[in-house]
Amino acid sequence: MNAIFGVDPSVQSEPEQSLDQKQRQEQELLAIAVPIAVELINWQLRESGENSLRFKRATLEKQGRELVFTHDERGEIFRVAVNRNQSGELEYSPINVGEIESEDIKIWQKAEGVLQQIREKALRQERRQTKGMSLACDGATRHRSSSNLYRICCAVS
Known about the structure:
By secondary structure, this protein is an alpha+beta fold. 50% of the residues lie in helices and 21% in strands. It is built from 3 helices and 5 strands. The chain has a 5-stranded antiparallel β-sheet, with helices on one face. Strand 1 and strand 2 form a beta hairpin. The longest helix is centred in the N-terminal third of the chain and has 35 residues, at 14-48.
């Protein structure tokens, strides 16, 4: 019926386009930030027992089952309820999403790099701890009498 009056129904008004863009930006930020935030805050809890993590100009905080990311100047950027489903997959529900700027997505991309460094460091430490067991798997140290030890060590390392 709108076509009769010369209005193309497939063209959205400017406010509708702006709203769609804002929702896409929110979804993009949360899709990037939440998994990283969960892993970072869990790491922080293990390492120091603290439920908050300070960024350069922002803070990530765990409040019960919620994660809150607050910028020092712009206030709360997002608050999400976080849960793991029965299969262990991360699920989250936005409670509040404030004004998002391109800087916010960049912060979480940098945080992902920091998280990768943490993972690599933990992996190196784990390898150092198990290195003694791996040495027994060296073919040069394998003897007929220790073939069971060889099989066990190679299964562990």
